[in-house]
Batch of 3 targets.
Target 1
Amino acid sequence: MKESDALKAVVITFPGSNCDQDAAHALRVVVGAQVSFVWHGQSELPAGTDLVMLPGGFSYGDALRSGAIARFSPIMAGVRRFAEGGGHVWGICNGFQVLLESHLLPGAMLQNASGRFVSRTVRMRVEQEDTPYTRTLARGRILRIPVAHHEGRYHASEETLDHLEAEGRVVFRYIDDPNGSVRSIAGICSANRRVLGMMPHPERAAEAVLGSEDGRPIFDSIAAHLAEATA
């Protein structure tokens, strides 16, 4: 692949992000993407951006609520325009929280049911295979992916949950739910399926050296999808 043909990914860095380098490494090394970092204080995304990644961490120290302040960062207006224009946006852990606070995805995150920070590998099931992020994964496949969060209990109204289920927008579901998420939801997507939010960290399970490659197919899926879209 010529460098000019490579997936152009942008990783947003907020004060307190701590998985931005991990996400960039997985995008760059695992799927050969060109990766650039955009500081939260900037107002525009680089021209030609194919994918925006909102990484894990503790943006603004999780003050108020996780992601509640990050939603007001100048760059989020650009991310919103990108998403509303049909762009692909992927939020992992804190990134998912920011997507919820920004109303790019429905629902909210509550403190874990245990009241404690949880950091361990969990099992999650692929619920949908027709998204840009799961096209190389069979529905029903079980993935072992790490989680690391204190405020990861997904919550939404019954009406919203029923809509998500009916529209096939619950992308991942916990087998052994670490946080008490309603209906064991681990990840959801937007109506156009281009915005994905998930609490588990596939970038921490994308290479054999990390002990698991279960997260790699998610990176492979979005890379393949965008390669076709831009061909």
Target 2
Amino acid sequence: MEVPNQPNGYRVEAGFWQTEPVVILRNDNNGTQATIATGIGANCVAWSITKDGQRIEVLETPPSPQELRSRHFKAGIPILWPFPGRVREARYTFEGEEYHLPRTDKGGIHHIHGLVLTAPWHLTQQGTGQNQAFAEFTIRPADLTEEDRAGYPFNFELILRYTLAERSLTIDLGVENQGQSSLPFGYGLHPYFRAPLVVSEKTPDRSECLVMLPSSNRWPTVDGLPTGGPEAVKPAENFLSWRPLGSQLFDHMYGKIIYDGDWSLAGFRDPGAGLVVLVRADRHFEEWVLFTQPNRPSLSIEPYTCPPNSINLAAEGIAEDGLITLPPGDTWQTRTIIEVNDFNV
């Protein structure tokens, strides 16, 4: 159902991405638009802004709904819950019980990125305000596959809200423990930003984009799994100050985050476009991941509440596990804000 147009140009409407039903948040006055695939993980598969009359895609969009649903091609903004990153050998023990998850990584050995990545969510609320348009989605255990429920037999409700305002996209997640036991989880976002935003002489590829991350400590990992706590890295190897990404491939996780008040801040600059993408995460997020793939014009700057394999780290002798355990009946809320701004080159 379409929300009537507002004088300030904001509206919410139903539409299609190829053949897939989507919810579209848009502002007709400034040309911004965000597209959410409700039935495939409530993934924001596209988000565009305008600058000087030019439409600029902020996110790498999946080639098709079928590719996104298959998990073979991740793009947009995947929602990672309750396990961001890998769970070793797709199994864990919690409160004395052992559970087995689907083996979903490329090697078929570990579980990766949780249970709601491609699951169907439900649109429960939508609307516009004076300077925004929003849509809210929910998911419960009944929306998961039988195999997923067996591996994670806890009772929960997630409430996910996207809010489009000017050139920003706010992502709020609420978790309610509706069961009789503690609810173990972690949460992360995996935005695939187009990098560069605009191919130009200054930024012919992502190597010329400048990156900033609020940490000088990196987790040691093997096959994406932590082998110890965060370790200090040399100034030349961190991104505390803006510096070019370079041609190196990244799958690096940073810990011991530096906060400014209630937020940590990461992002990248595209000098050719004169634009900067900033990601603000509240204090629930204790890690950042920097990720690139070969032959893909994208860059992922990912806030995580915990490291991969967090549910197993204490048993493996790593104290800084970051796992959230929510008591029965309790709720938990967190917020991330992504914004695109002009900057002077």
Target 3
Amino acid sequence: MNVQHNVELAPYTSLRVGGMAKNFIQTSGQDLQSVVMEAGSPIWVIGYGTNSLISDKGLDGTVVMNQGGHIKQLNATTIKVDSGVLWDDFIQKLIELGLYGLEFTSGVPGSTGAAVIGNIAAYGHAVADSLVGATILNTETGTVTSWENEAFEFGYRTSALQKPQNSKLVVLDATFQLSPTAVGPLEYDSALKIASELHLEANSLANRRTIILETRRRAGSLVSTNSKGPWTAGSFFKNPVVTPDQVETIISYDESGITKQQLLRQNQIHGGSSVRVSAAHVLLAAGFNRGQTWGQVRLHPDHILKIENVGQATAQEIYEVVQEIISTVSQKLGITLEPEVRFLGDFS
């Protein structure tokens, strides 16, 4: 086991911020259990750093970068995948195998383990809908258990693995049940417009992936490979549930030109409820502006929900902007915004 010491974590995150890891190990999914149990505690298991804000103070203990692993076809429609496999690599493999059920999550960054923990969803497909179960390691006791779908208590962008009492649990691998035929139509208006523009029928897996990737590209939702920034962790906040009386006010900030009924339907598709409104619309309703800046921290000029490090921001500066947004939204609208991005380490 190759252990490095005092490794800067910023280059391993999509926001390009974060302090030092006292100890640092890189591994792949199939070796994760042995590496974690040899590393001692505290331990931080991180995949591709795309949904995390790591403190400038760094992380004590051992950081394990879990990247890679195997994808195994158990039968015609059942696939087992190691937690360190890049989610989009997994999606591409499913498309190669002709299996439907998760293709609308094409382009979502991060590892398969993180996808399970966060119950990622996009355009009507969610991890919860296809997951059979997963192998879970307790890093404190060393025990390994198998969880079936119900044990995860899946909800909107959440699972039981996010509960504080389960902080010592790590996903080793996950098993999914897919379909040889299309699962659900493509209903999201922005994606349908792009399908029409590209003259693509949203039936084949290849077409669905092309449509979704282009939709995500235009929404600024693909990971940037720009070496000079700006950098982002993607949409920073979860879409909140509001009261029926608040829905009308919040959706009035939509600029797409679609009807109220279409917006309510998109809320249902994207968040499971017509009163789970876009967090981007909430920010606009609270008075924040696209492109608004705080030094080296900026709200994306087009996609306000994406908080950017434009080049030299610190993790603390990003954290402070997040807290200002949460506080302002609460004071002005009475709405509680919950970050989708994880905060790792100490922030003041």
